[in-house]
Each structure stands twice: as structure tokens, then as C-alpha cells.
Amino acid sequence: MPALDEVLDIAHEAGRAILEIYNTSDFAVTRKDDDTPLTQADLAAHRLILERLAALEPRLPCLSEESAQIPYGVRRGWTRYWLVDPLDGTKEFVKRNGEFTVNIALVEDGLPTLGVVHAPALALSYLAARGVGAFREADGERQAIRTRRTPQRPALVVSKSHRDAALDAFLARLPPHDALSRGSSLKFCLVAEGSADFYPRTGPTSEWDTAAGQCIAECAGAQVLTLPDWQPLRYNRKDSLINPNFAVIGDPAYGWRERLGAAAG
What was the pLDDT predicted at 38? Predict the structure, then answer.
């Protein structure tokens, strides 16, 4: 397996390229075919990450949000590949709230086995590899992280820019809880570090949005399960790269399925 620190270095380098554009007085924003925003920072980070990953592991293919046109007939034969979102949370980037990330994951047989989530504007990184553990790095210090036991009043984390009616209906049926909102893959990381207990996602996400965060959350003790069938979230299993609805569960012993199964359905 590639060294975790080498992948983190690539994410840091991409983050510096993103900040060069983020810190300018103005940057161009265009719209992709699905009407999501695209900036020069997305493209600069995409090119840099693909170049560096190819140098690190020349034989591994790479699927990035900005090169997602690779047909499933090609992808279906991939047993090991990189899955990258060079700038997750472009809406947060455009709003200049700092809650955007660089996501890099290694996927093996449908399972993310290495993940890095780097938030350059926050000088904050999360990283994990199966068999190694999950970590949070800030101010030059690295700490191991674990999910927490769910308290009497759980903390939920939801999307900052993608809240929809289905999520509001879901939340309305839950027991008393506190709600946090975050952009990008930072939601996975809040559950991983024990700052939140549950992250439900009812709106569309793509596989590059979730793989790195899923690896970090699961290596910290969480489960990432599809809704409403509560099965493990897996990758490269179909032509579409859109994920089903899912939930990130920090404390599997809490019994979220039994408590929330009706709401998830």
C-alpha cells in the first residue's frame, strides 16, 4: 500500500495550489453540465494530484471528479484505483467559508482502504489507512482519533449547502438532538473524531465525495451504511457514480437502525 504520508503530502501540495487562487481578490466560476460550480482551483488541483499519484504508483488508474467520463466498461476491471475529489465543497470555496477539502482515497475491491481529507483554508488534515488507524493533524501535531459512545442527546452533522426536504423530514422524526452543519467531507471527520455521532445524507453525492471520508470514519470505529437498506457503502459496482442515501454511524452499539429505521424508510 502507498505510504499514507506520501498521499498527505500530495493533498497538502494541492491545497497550496487551491489557496493561491482562493486568496486572490477574484476568481472565475463556471457551471458544469450538472449545474455545479467549477473554478480554476478545481482544475489546478486535479492536474497536480493526477500527476503526483501517477509518479507515486504508475500502474494504478485514477478516477477524479474532473475526469469522470471513464466508461464503466473500463472501470469495472479496476480492482485497485485512486478515487479523487480535487476540491470537495466548491460551493463553500465560492462562499469563502473555508469548509472545502482535498479528498484522495485508495479503493481496493470496492472498499476505501486509504483516505486523506485535507482542508487547506483551515490548516487541518484527517488521514487513515486500514490496519494503521485514523488521525487528525493540525498545527504540526498528529493525534489518533476514535468515535465516541453516543451521549443521551446525540449530535448530528448535516450538509451546509445541500439540505433538502427529505432530510428535514428525516430529522423531524428523530429524538432530541443537537445539529451541526459543515461543508464537504468534514462531516465524516466530525463523526470520526467524536465531535458528532450521526451523519445522515439524503441528497445526491458522488463516489469521489465520500470514499476518503468513509475510510477515515470507518478506521476510527464508525459504520457507513446505505439507506434505507443499511448495507455497507461500496464503490465501482455500477455504471452510475452516484451514491445511494447513506448514514455515518459513530457508535454502532447505539442501535441507530432500530431507532431510526422507520425514519430512514
Answer: 59
